[in-house]
Write a structure and sequence with these properties.
Layout (H helix, E strand, L loop, with lengths): L1 E7 L10 H13 L4 E6 L6 H4 L7 E6 L6 H11 L18 E6 L4 E6 L7 H14 L8 E7 L6 H17 L4 E6 L17 E6 L6 H11 L13 E3 L2 E5 L9 H11 L5 H18 L1
Parallel strand pairs: 1-2, 1-3, 3-5, 6-7, 6-8, 8-10
Antiparallel strand pairs: 4-5, 9-10
Helix pairs in contact: 1-7, 4-5, 7-8
Keywords: Cobalamin biosynthesis, Cobalt, Lyase, Metal-binding
InterPro entries: CbiX-like, Sirohydro_Cobaltochel/CbiX
GO molecular function: lyase activity; metal ion binding
Length: 291
C-alpha cells in the first residue's frame, strides 16, 4: 500500500487557508492512485505530528504545499514527522532544486519519501501559465500580454525570491508572453510599481502563494491600485496607469496544482503516471468550462 500526505501551513485566523489543500487532495483521491490520501497542517488539525499514525500504508509520500525551500520544509516538517536521519544537505539543493529523500519514520515503522516543495517544481511554471489562462478566459493568452509573477520576498530567506525568479525565467524562455517580470512585496522590484515594469497594455498578475489570504486579497490589490479599499472589490481587468491589470489571485488555488503534487510523488518513485495525465486532462476541461 502507498499513501500520500499533503502538508501545508494552515491558519488559525483565515479559514480559507486550508481550502486549496483539501481541494487538491480530493482531486488526487479521484484518481485512485494512492490507497490513502491525507492532509496535515502546522496551524490546523490534523497536525503534522499525528498524521503518519493515521495511515495503514507502510510506504508514504510526503509533499509540502509550500512555495520555497526554507525553515518549514527543512526544519519544521521533518522534525514534526520525526524522520530519522534527516539532513537538509541530503537534498543537495541550490535553493530551487530539491527533489526527494527516502527516510525511515522509525517510531511508526514506515518508509517515507520526503519531497521538495511544490513551489520549486518545474511543473509550477505550467500552473502559473494556466492561472493566466483562467483569469483571462483565453487558453491561448500570451501575445500582446505581459506576465508578472509575484512573490513575498524576504531578506530572511533568499530562497523565497529564488523560486519566483526561477519560474519567471522559465516562462520567459517559453516565449509565450511579450514580457515576463518577477516582482515582490517586500523587496525590489516591488509589485506596487507593476505598471512601471511593462510596456504591454495588458498585464496578468499571478501571485506565487498557496492560498488566498491577507496578502493576496488585501495587500496586493491595494498596493497595485486596483482598489482603494479591498472590501469594495475590484474589476477584472482593472485599468491602472494606462494598463489593464488581470489579477489572478493565489496560484495555489488553481486546480492544476494537484498535478504538481503528483509530479513530486512521481519523481520520488510513486506509481502515479496515469494519475498525472488524468489530472492534466480533468483540470483543463474544468478551466475551459469555467471560461
Amino acid at each position: 500500500m502507498q499513501a500520500l500526505v499533503i502538508v501545508a501551513h494552515g491558519s488559525h485566523l483565515n479559514p480559507e487557508s486550508s481550502t486549496p489543500t483539501y481541494a487538491h487532495a480530493d482531486t488526487i483521491r479521484e484518481t485512485a492512485a494512492f490507497d490513502e490520501v491525507r492532509e496535515a497542517f502546522w496551524k490546523e488539525e490534523p497536525h503534522f505530528r499525528e498524521v503518519l499514525r493515521t495511515l495503514e500504508s507502510e510506504e508514504v509520500y510526503i509533499v509540502p504545499l509550500f512555495i520555497s525551500e526554507g525553515y518549514f520544509t527543512e526544519d519544521v516538517i521533518p522534525r514534526e514527522l520525526r524522520l530519522d536521519d534527516w539532513d537538509p544537505e541530503a537534498w543537495e539543493s541550490n535553493g530551487t532544486s530539491a527533489t526527494h529523500v527516502t527516510l525511515d519514520a522509525g517510531d511508526v515503522e514506515k518508509t517515507v519519501h520526503y519531497c521538495g516543495p511544490v513551489g520549486t517544481h518545474d511543473a509550477m511554471s505550467d500552473v502559473i501559465v494556466r492561472r493566466a489562462e483562467t483569469v483571462t478566459g483565453d487558453p491561448e493568452v500570451g501575445e500582446g500580454f505581459g506576465l508578472a509573477v509575484v512573490g513575498h520576498g524576504t531578506k530572511r530567506n533568499e530562497n523565497s525570491a529564488k523560486a519566483i525568479e526561477y519560474h519567471a525565467d522559465r516562462i520567459r524562455d517559453m516565449g509565450r508572453f511579450d514580457e515576463v517580470q518577477a516582482l515582490f512585496m517586500d523587496e525590489d522590484p516591488e509589485v506596487d510599481d507593476v505598471t512601471d515594469f511593462f510596456e504591454s497594455e495588458d498585464i496578468v498578475v499571478v501571485p506565487l502563494f498557496v492560498a488566498d489570504g491577507y496578502h493576496t486579497q488585501e495587500d496586493i490589490p491595494e498596493d497595485m491600485g486596483l482598489t482603494d479599499d479591498y472590501r469594495d472589490g475590484w474589476e477584472t481587468p482593472a485599468k491602472v496607469d494606462g494598463h489593464y491589470l488581470w489579477y489572478a489571485g493565489a496560484v495555489g488555488t488553481e486546480p492544476l496544482m494537484a498535478d504538481v503534487v503528483l509530479e513530486r510523488a512521481l519523481d520520488a518513485g510513486a506509481d502515479v503516471a496515469d494519475a498525472v495525465e488524468y489530472v492534466k486532462e480533468h483540470t483543463r476541461d474544468a478551466a475551459v468550462t469555467e471560461a
